[in-house]
Amino acid sequence: MSIFEKQETAMENKDLETYATTLHDDFEFIMHLDSSKKNKEEAMEMFTFMVNSDDFVTHDSRCLYENDEAMVTHGVMSFPDGTKESVLAFMQIKDGQVIRMETGATLLP
Fold this sequence. Notes:
Distance between the termini: 35 Å
Strand content: over 45%
Number of helices: 3
Shape: globular
Helix content: 25-40%
Low-confidence stretches: none
Structural class: alpha+beta
Mean pLDDT: 96
Radius of gyration: 13 Å
Oligomer: single chain
């Protein structure tokens, strides 16, 4: 099973423990809003909050590319304030886990 498939299945099942296993211990998440960084623990807190909220919804999530070194995904996210963004994520892979994730987003009408 690819990392993307494992992550998607975990998110669909709200299985954050399994999702966390796809992230390297030295994981770093770079936010598109302000370029701030979160480590694995901080990112998992954010992911857990989002997954457990009905106000954050990801539509049409898909993997554009994945190999042993990198993965690129795309999806549309709906937010609590009613906005939607097209979100592109680049993930660097090390030792079979995501070590770095950076997102870029475009506000949709």
